[in-house]
Amino acid sequence: MVVVLGTAAIAGEKSWNLGDPHLNVIPRTAQETARIAAVTALTSDFSAPQRFEDKPAGAATVRARRDADAFSQPSGNISFKDELTFKMGNGLFRKLWVSSPSSTLASDGLGPLFNARSCQRCHLKDGRGHPPENAQDNAISIFLRVSIPGTPNDAMADIQGYFATLPDPTYGSQLQDFAVQGHKAEYSLGITYHELPVTLADGMVVTLRAPTYSADHLGYGPLHPDAMFSPRVAPQMIGLGLLEAIPAQDILAGADPDDLDGDGISGRPNVVMSSVHTQPMLGRFGLKAGAATILEQSAAAFSGDIGISSPLHVAGAGECTAAQSVCQDAIHGDSDDRVYEIDAEGLDLVAFYSRNLGVPARRGADDPQVLRGKRLFYETGCTACHTPSFVTHRLADQPEQSFQLIWPFTDMLLHDMGPGLADNRPEARASGSEWRTPPLWGIGLTQQVSGHSYFLHDGRARSILEAVLWHGGEAQAQRDTVIEMPTKDRDALIAYLESL
């Protein structure tokens, strides 16, 4: 099989060969390319749903359940054999890890520092995490990333616009608020909010909550004076394999870093080093697109969030740094008979599970109010970042993701969202005010799955409307249009988003 490489010839930047070496791609024919361009073109007809619009994941779409398991179903087109593989991956995703030494050898190795004891503890029901509800609530599905300025290594030195960073010398790349017995946690998360009222054109006042974060009760001394923080809430898990299967060349085709078309939108690709493929690749996963593949994102979470070693992160002490000698010297789950706390097979199973979490079918796509909201979504210019549809690669060994028309509503690019949402911490090519456009599929089921309706990278928005009103920077014009909308139009727009 031949792998199709995508080359980005972007104005003002060098051309990069950012193909898809992680995928076994069957090249498209010229006829297929023309068909894809036609089927993914933006519509101007809002009288009825587009063909297949009610199936956001193509043949992988699953029935929209009415309970909290709506995000926990396998791809709708998965085989019986692979459904068993999915269930084994689910078992590892839900596994509660314990500290070493333990009689349960397959489950020991937790920490010594950690944010959660399982993947499921952060991604509850495979949905979104949330900030603490009150002083008594825990911060188990939100944490602070931390880094300091650095110097780019040779592999990334030629990537224009790359921000080199290093882990904090004492606390590493993220702060862990739990520790196994006999060890100190790194910190506790402090959040305070102040209110920002926004008055809409119809007189309705929406109060936004602006957070301030602090790293309290530091367990290992002061942070580096140049430490930069970024709060992160666990995102929903659905459709990840389909996002991974979008051709890099199709994502790069939407980039317009110099806004040559004059629409005020300047999407940029993130470029990150792949530890598996040992080359710069298109960033796709994480809130700033800081990981290239699902496998690498999964391995990084095992190491940073749970303190579990794997073939990609070999340290049995997880995120413990050289400055945390007691943590480094602790007993962990690696041994002569068990090289890693989760081995390559286990990591592959978790990646397979993550790749195949199904996207629920649309609800009410033909409802007149939803169709009216769709027209407003398009006319307001929201599709400039939230690209409605793509067609995935033809894949020789991933039939669930192969050649599917999908509707994720993301361009997978970085956008400057203005000072209101800035974390002021860069990540690869993402500046301190840039974020990857989040997919919108499943957004209307958040309350049902997660038990809350908190959105954005840190969960500050308590509704879809609040999330829209936080938009700034490249999306300032769209935000202002929503503020000026008549009540019926705004309600229709929200109804459309809730149908996704």
Short description:
The chain has 500 residues and is of the alpha+beta class.
Describe the protein.
A 3-stranded antiparallel sheet has the order 6-5-10, with no helix packed on it. A two-stranded antiparallel ribbon has the order 1-2. It has one domain. It is of the alpha+beta class. The radius of gyration is 22 Å and the shape is globular.
- The total number of structural domains is 1
Biggest sheet character: 3 strands, antiparallel
Order of helix and strand elements from N to C terminus = EEEHHEHEEEEEEHHEEHHHHEEEEEHHHH
Distance between the termini: 35 Å
Instruction: State which percent range the strand residues make up.
Output: 5-15%
Describe how the helices and strands are arranged.
Blueprint: E1 7-8, E2 16-17, E3 25-26, H1 30-39, H2 80-94, E4 113-114, H3 119-122, E5 142-149, E6 165-166, E7 178-179, E8 188-199, E9 205-216, E10 228-233, H4 240-244, H5 248-252, E11 271-274, E12 279-282, H6 294-306, H7 325-328, H8 344-355, H9 368-379, E13 390-391, E14 394-395, E15 405-406, E16 414-416, E17 434-436, H10 446-450, H11 464-469, H12 476-484, H13 487-498
Antiparallel strand pairs: 1-2, 3-14, 4-7, 5-6, 5-10, 8-9, 11-12, 13-15, 16-17
